[in-house]
Amino acid sequence: MPQEDILQVKRDKLKALQDMGQDPFRIVKYDVTNHSEELKANFEEFEGKDVSVAGRMMFKRVMGKASFCNIMDLQGKIQIYAARDSLGEESYTSFKKMYDVGDILGVKGKVFRTKAGEISVHAEEITLLSKALLPLPEKFHGLTDTDTRYRERYVDLIMNENVKETFIKRSKIISSIRRYLDDRGFMEVETPMLVENAGGAAARPFTTHYNALDEDRKLRISLELYLKRLIIGGMERVYEIGRVFRNEGLDTKHNPEFTLMELYQAYTDYHGMMDLTEDMYRYLAETVCGSAVITYGDLEIDLSKPFRRLTMVDAIKEITGIDFDQIKTEEEAKAIAKEKGVEFEKHHKRGDIVNLFFDEFCEDKMIQPTFIMDHPIEISPLTKKKPDDPGKVERFELYINGWEMCNAYSELNDPIDQRERFAAQDALAAAGDEEANHTDEDFLHAMEIGMPPTGGIGYGIDRLVMLLTNSASIKEVIAFPTLKSLS
Question: What is the 3-state composition of the chain as percent helix, strand, coil, each rounded to the nearest 5?
Answer without folding.
Answer: 40, 25, 35
